[in-house]
Amino acid sequence: MAKAFFRLQKFLRRTQFLLFFLTAAYLMAGSLLLLQRTRLVIQQGSRGTSANQALPVPDGMVGVGITDPRTLQNPRPGPRLLVGMDALQEPALDQRHSPRWLVSRNSELRQLRRRWFHRFISDQEPMQTAGFKAMKHTAEHKGTYMGCFSDDSRERTLKGAVFYDLRKMTVSHCQEACAERAYTYAGLAYGAECYCGNKLPATASKPEECNSECKGEKGSVCGGVNRLSVYRVEELRAGARRRRNVIYRGCFRAPENLTDTFPASLIQPNLTVEMCSEFCSKKEFPLAVIQGQECYCGYPTGRFSLHDGADGLFCSGMHNASSATEGKYCLVYQTPVQDTRCTDRKFLTTKSKVFVALSSFPGAGNTWARHLIEHATGYYTGSYYFDGALYNKGFKGEKDHWRSRRTICVKTHESGKTEIEMFDSAILLIRNPYKSLMAEFNRKYAGHLGYATDRNWKSKEWPDFVNSYASWWASHVLDWLKYGKRLLVVHYEDLKQSLIPKLREMVEFLNMTVTEDRLLCVENNRDGNFKRSGAKQKDFEPFTQEMKDLINRYILTVDEALRGKNFTGLPREYVPR
């Protein structure tokens, strides 16, 4: 017995020593790895990239937990930039902005952006967890619970407005969003979707069918699958801001038969804009149309598309019964009601045979283009990266693997032969580099919806940012022109100016067909949830003459490359300043 005990004691001593040795080895390896990474960042800075430049990421960040061997590739030789320009014959300038330098520089930036993103995600998780705990204790349900009701994506129960928050949705958050817009009812579904409206459904579902827990509030129910938890919204607490704005759309020629064109109408003596807008809002229509003492409610349609506006003088006497226009024109207002005819989206039921990229430089409007494509086609778009802010606001394709082929197209900011040749075709979205650089800088310091401060613009980061990202703007387009198999080039400015024709062209490129009414619905919801808010700085010019000279050379090069591939050159407003 003593002998067996002695052997056991000897074994435990050896095991203890082995564990101590392994722990020491693990700590030493970690220290060496940390020193190596620190040295790499210092080396990157010595090449011209400041420490702060490890921070910028494209507007759809890199996928969480995915390490792609493509990011470790050696720099690739790219197409020659600025060929034949006298200004580049100087040796120092040619070496500083040569194609090889461009590609090497952009490769370094991509690695730094990926490294920063993983650090950013790890730092944010504890903060988000703490926020959820606080939300659980402070949430208050101000509304009156009306019951559980059925809901169908093809025919929404509450049609006023739609909001998504796939990580932080609470009952109070939904109620406040609807109450601020003066809706009567707020409904929650799938634990993360919020719907507003003024009409309560006629028949209720079984209470147990609303069984989805709110994403941001444990213990609270936020509807279910095709089920709405509906609340009657109480008055907002004092000081809350209402957003019940009515927007004047203009004077338009009236359709031949107003009653057939618009599904709801009201005849009211002394009719006012407020009376008509309130009537149409309660009927849950996005348009309020006034002709004399008559009020009509409806949607933009093929019969009444709002594309051919008339001179406002034709509507100047509209509220007099003896209008000189004799009923040929009408005033149109946008109510706060959202046009929900195109808000339903889903993943492809079968894997796409064609792998399509939606490629752009950061700040070129990729998120906006995704919003338009999703609402026009009814299918989600994917992303080469993962952006939690976009996912939370309804871009569900953010969490789907970018190679799943369940999305209509995949967002990417990547360039280079390998990254491009993975796709069968691509929509290449190009924006004025001056606007793109400012948009991406705003996103870096103020998120998707804000503006960078004066302090940010006047700091050292701005010139460093322009110096690095301007070259990426040029090389991104040149690489896709060189290696892309099948391209549709879309200029952001053209899409903004002629939305429906350009969007129809994009949808046809994706091999999809859509109705005219759905495109008109997209146009009615054109801004989405990611239009920057707040006042812009008037006559703000952050670019120095040296920056302009650099960017202008890139503009000329890209314009020449586009024409060389039989594409339309850059819009006139790109012309060097």
TrEMBL record:
Keywords: Repeat. GO terms for molecular function: sulfotransferase activity. SMART domains: WSC. It comes from the Eukaryota. Residues 142-234, 245-342 form the WSC domain. Transmembrane segments: none annotated. Pfam families: Sulfotransfer_1 (PF00685), WSC (PF01822). Belongs to the WSCD family. This is WSCD1 protein.
